[in-house]
Amino acid sequence: MDIHTHIVPGIDDGASSMDEALKMVGMAYDEGIRVIVATPHYGLRNPGYDRDKAVKTCRQLRDKVMEIHGDMKVYTGNEIYYYPGIVEDLDKKKALTIGGTGYVLIEFSVKEELDVITNAVRSLVMAGYRPILAHVERYESLQKKLEEIKRLIELGAYIQVNTNSFMGSKFDKRTAWCTRLLRERCIHFVASDCHNCTSRKPLMKTAVQRMIALSDEETVERIVHTNVLKIVRNQYI
Q1: How many CB atoms lie within 10 A of CB 91?
Q2: What do you get for the CA distance between the two ends of the chain, in Å?
Q3: What's the per-residue H, E or C state across 173-209?
C-alpha cells in the first residue's frame, strides 16, 4: 500500500501523461502494491494546482486502473507544502486529506527549522487533523535527532519515509538513519514518492525485503499494510 505518489498525469512534476501514469501503475502492481494514494503537490511547489482538474483526472485514472487491475484501489490526496494558512485551506477542502479522512500528508523545506515543524504538527492536531510528515529523513533539523522524532510522534505526528531510503549501502547515512528509526519503531509508513517510470519509480518490494531483514515481519507488516488500512478506515493508529 503506497500512500505517497505523484501518479495523476499533468497535475504536478509527476506523471506527464495518462500512458505514463498507467505504466507507473503497472510497475506498482508488479511491486505488490494494491492501494495507491495519489498525492499531487499542493502549495509552494505547485502554484498552478487546480483542485477540480486534479480530482477529475484522478477519477479518470482510477476508472482505467479498475479496468486493468480490478483488485487495485486508488484514493485521492495531496502532498501539502506547509505554510501557516494550511488549516484554513483544509477546512475549505482546497487542499485534500487522504481519501477524505482526517489524515493529511505534509512536507517541509529540507532546511525547515524544528520549531516550525513542531508548531505545524500542533496546529494541525488542534484543528482535528492527523499529520503524516512526508519523507522525514530529508529534514536537516531532524537528522540523527531521535528524541525530537519521538516528541513529534507524542504530539500527534505520523512518520513516513521513502522506500528508496532503505536501498542504500550499509555505509549510506540516510539508510543508516532510516534503519535506526525502523528499529526504534518510529516509522508509521514507507512510500515510494514515485514521479515517473525511470528515475523515481514506484518501488516497494526490495525496500520491504530489506526492512524485514533489518527488523522483523510483524513490524514491517504494520508499516506497509495495517497502518494504511487504518487510514482508509479513518481509524487512529
Answers
A1: 12
A2: 16
A3: HHHHHHHHHHHCCCCCEEECCECCCCCCCCCCHHHHH
Which of 179, 184, 193, 133 minimizes the C-alpha distance to 160?
A: 133
Q: At what angle do helices 173-183 and 205-214 cross, to 10 degrees?
A: 60
Task: Measure the CA–CA gap between 38 and 194, rounded to whole angstroms.
Answer: 10
Mean pLDDT of all residues in 38-63:
95
Residue 140 C-beta-side C-alpha neighbours within 13 Å: 5
DSSP string, 13-53: SS--SHHHHHHHHHHHHHTT--EEEE--EEBTTBTT--HHH
Residue 99, pLDDT above cutoff 80:
yes
Average pLDDT, the chain: 96
Model-level pTM? Answer: 0.96
Let me know: does 59 contact 18? Beta carbons within 8 Å. no
The pLDDT, as a whole number, for residue 45 is 86
- Specify the pLDDT at position 171: 86
Report the alpha-carbon distance of residue 15 to residue 196 in Å, rounded. Answer: 6
